[in-house]
Amino acid sequence: MVETPVRHETGDFEAKGAGRLVWQSWAPAGHPAAVLAVVHGYGEHGGRYGFLVDDMVPRGYAVATFDLRGHGRSPGRRGHIDRFADYLADARAFLAQVRRACPDTPVVLLGHSMGGLIAAALAEELDAGLAGNGDAALAEEHEAGLAGLVLSSPFLGMRLAVPALQVKVARLLSRVAPTLRMNNPLRAEQLSHDPAVVAAADADPLNHRQTTARWATEILSAQPAVIAAAGRLRLPLLLLYADDDPIADPRAAEELFARAASVDKAKRCYAGYYHEIFNEVGRAAVFEDLAAWLGVHVPAEHAAQ
């Protein structure tokens, strides 16, 4: 793979109820084949996708990321949302920003972990013509601008060991003390077999492990709802997941895939990988699979010059 000059841009955009969220993009010289619009996972931020940038930009693709409310450099209480729809508002505003920054370029929505839950929910909403508030024009823009949906280790079900009593307590506290902090069992060692990735995740000051009662109940409610609504999905779909993921239940990802109405859908399961497949020791195989899928689904006329 040849060395490719990279154009790096940073900025912010307005999201309903969140203030201005931070975003950034990396692009090759010339016109990119497509933009990978990345929705990151819980407790992290958009700047953690360096391996994805390093591999995809030389192939002719732009990568755009942002920090959800309460994450990274964006404003908001860490690890808290009032309702799951707040994250959908963030992702919707991010897609609008990507389209403004990269007009006439196909956009592939890529969600990892909690970002996969958010991306799947948003795609279902838009494919159903709902667009949050029934905006048919936005739904049409979505159909014209999104070339596909990629889900990476989507957090559609929990594999982490969380006591049933803790879940019950969270549901109670969500009503009476929604911002109360809850115990979070997630550990960096569950993300990747790469010790450098684990050490960097622990040392990253923009990462957090804060969780509130309302956040927990909103996510737990969204997971089965997104799976149940998978019949709304029409976009070309690529599911990338790991069978040894200690965080997100791979069976939930497989159920959403089976229910998805997308005529064009494919999945790849990586044996022995942990949760962050883009940051795993064997990430090269993941990038090759992603690049092969993109090569089929990005129109030839948009190939990088």
Give structural notes.
This protein has an 8-stranded mixed β-sheet with strand order 1-2-4-3-5-6-7-8, sandwiched between helices. Residues 140-144 and 300-305 have low confidence and may be disordered. It has 9 helices and 8 strands. Helix content is 36%, strand content 18%. With 305 residues, the protein is an alpha/beta fold. Helix 5 (164-176) crosses helix 7. It has a single domain, classed as Alpha/Beta hydrolase fold, catalytic domain (Rossmann fold), CATH 3.40.50. The radius of gyration is 18 Å and the shape is globular. The longest helix has 17 residues, at 85-101. Strand 1 and strand 2 (19-28) form a beta hairpin. It has helices at residues 50-56, 85-101, 114-127, 136-145, 164-176, 195-203, 213-228, 250-259, 283-297, and strands spanning 6-15, 19-28, 35-39, 62-66, 107-112, 146-152, 237-242, 265-270.
- The top level CATH class name: Alpha Beta
Termini, distance in Å? 16 Å
The rough form would be described as: globular
Mean pLDDT: 89
The helix/strand class is alpha/beta
The major pleated sheet works out as:
8 strands, mixed
Radius of gyration: 18 Å
Beta-strand level of the residues, as a percent range?
A: 15-25%
Write down the CATH topology.
Rossmann fold
Low-confidence runs: 140-144, 300-305
Helix content: 25-40%
